[in-house]
């Protein structure tokens, strides 16, 4: 069984055709990078996986559960599949530690002590333990993003989705965030990462998916060959612009 399976998935926003006949499977432990021009449907693809957008037709199975079935609880899916956004979305009136303990105590019913212990060890892993009592507004973008990643991990998800996690950061902050993501990937986390960081993709991805105009044009498990010479002309053009 694949963790995630798209079968003939279509997504429309009104008359706009945002995802076109998507057929993809994602397996446990895979690190997949999704690339493509702006407006190609990358965010929409990610957002359908944790139910932030509903598909229009076709089937999307998460651990064999159809996302559109009445029995499927989106809250359960979101517990299991975390998402890290471009704009961190930390709670501004909560400390770093509270940002991380909130969902585990409220949603997983962990005790405050358990949640705080886990949060501290995660903050240590992302290099942010010394800021545990700070408020988000006092942190740099890169620091906030590392806290957001720790917050995602605190739910012990089966998979993490990243939607351009470094696109809003000053260049000098990007490396620290990518290093944290590399570490998580090497520890075996299942990840789908939308990014323009091609060096990260080359170094970390098991697989690269290229999208354009709502379609998956390439899906390659040979990441190095893909970057040396993509098969599709539009992928070649895209790579030559961004690398
Ligand atoms: P990407 O992440 O690759 O830049 P998106 O998935 O965000 O692309 O968007 C794909 C297309 O769908 C874009 O043309 C965008 O304008 C459109 N789109 C995305 N979300 C909505 C929405 N909520 N309503 C209408 N159009 C949308
Ligand atoms: Mg996007």
TrEMBL record:
It comes from the Bacteria. SUPFAM superfamilies: P-loop containing nucleoside triphosphate hydrolases. Residues 4-238 form the ABC transporter domain. GO terms for molecular function: ABC-type amino acid transporter activity; ATP binding; ATP hydrolysis activity. The keyword Transport applies. It holds the Pfam family ABC_tran. The keyword Transport applies. CDD domains: ABC_HisP_GlnQ (cd03262). Keywords: ATP-binding, Nucleotide-binding, Transport. Belongs to the ABC transporter superfamily. PANTHER family: AMINO ACID IMPORT ATP-BINDING PROTEIN, PHOSPHONATES IMPORT ATP-BINDING PROTEIN PHNC. This is Putative glutamine ABC transporter ATP-binding protein. The lineage of its organism: Bacteria, Bacillati, Bacillota, Bacilli, Lactobacillales.
